[in-house]
Amino acid sequence: xxxxxxxxxxxxxxxxxxxxxxxxxxxxxxxxxxxxxxxxxxxxxxxxxxxxxxxxxxxxxxxxxxxxxxxxxxxxxxxxxxxxxxxxxxxxxxxxxxxxxxxxxxxxxxxxxxxxxxxxxxxxxxxxxxxxxxxxxxxxxxxxxxxxxxxxxxxxxx
Length: 158
Description:
Blueprint lengths: L13 H21 L23 H15 L16 H8 L13 H7 L19 H20 L3
């Protein structure tokens, strides 16, 4: 008999990922032993097949938030809670050994945003939703302006 279990394991750090994988391996072995399996289970982990956590470097994040505040007003720059998404952006900074930053640019019109804040209103569609549609002109303009200004400020540093 055989059981094939495939998992996606997400964590915010490599150290926690290692603890999770070791724990999964140990629970598997102990469960098989407890239920009298005739042989030790084979637990395989493809160490290369995972998406590392995207880590926003604190100094780079603070510099970007300050710069963005001068562009659009500090009241329009929000710090978001960490998420367990499966973005591949975490690979770039890790592979290159450089500080990383992933940020978002608001994409809905002010009218739609205000309507979504009313009591009983549903949430705005997320980025990967089929219902997501940004207000294209201001969204693209702000995305380009923020990225260009951030790049220029970083390139100006010695």
